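Pipeline run #58 for the internal structure catalog. This entry was flagged by the ingest filter as a single-chain record with no existing model, so it goes straight to prediction. Upstream metadata was stripped on purpose; only the residue string is passed forward. Reviewer on rotation: M.T. Logging verbosity set to normal.
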Amino acid sequence: MPKSFSFWPPNTLGARIRLSVVVLAAVNLIALFFVIWPLGGSPAELNRQASDLRLTLRQKQGSLERTKKLVEKIKSGRGQGDDFLKSYFLPRRTAYSQILDELTKSAAEAKLKPKESSFATELIDGSDNLSMMQISANFEGSYGNLVQFVHLLDKSNSLLIVEGLNATPQQGSGILNVIMKLDTFVREEEAP
């Protein structure tokens, strides 16, 4: 009677050899699977992924450079804005006297006679330290004097905006009664 064949337990040399062949064939099949379909992908897929990552890196670096340039422009703009505010917006403590002095000097140079003036300030929406000062000033003088006065205000270092000008002649003379509405801007000074 022939012997019965069994893989386990390998009790004969032939059974052990057959078991070894089956195990080696299974291991070779697994290795073949990983050669054909590697875990990380094929070399072509890995190259494509690498090129995609390089492209993404270049895009991110370009975006970073643009952002750095924007930051520099914002810093520069803030500095220029602060310089503008310091140059043309008057400090609140001295704004009234500076404007009154400016108007009086310009009127004297243009030979206009200053009369009463009134000042009012109101906060600028969206700002907690900037206000607009509205000035109503009355003068008396000739048309030539008025033109010279407006020219002097235009050349002034202060930021004065002529909102309105009303000139009415006095009856029987070449003298004008002038009512001017002016705007300027005031800033709160920071505490030391």
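catalog note: DSSP finds four helices and five strands in the chain.
catalog note: Strands lie at 90-91, 113-123, 130-141, 161-169, 176-187.
status: ready for reviewer M.T.
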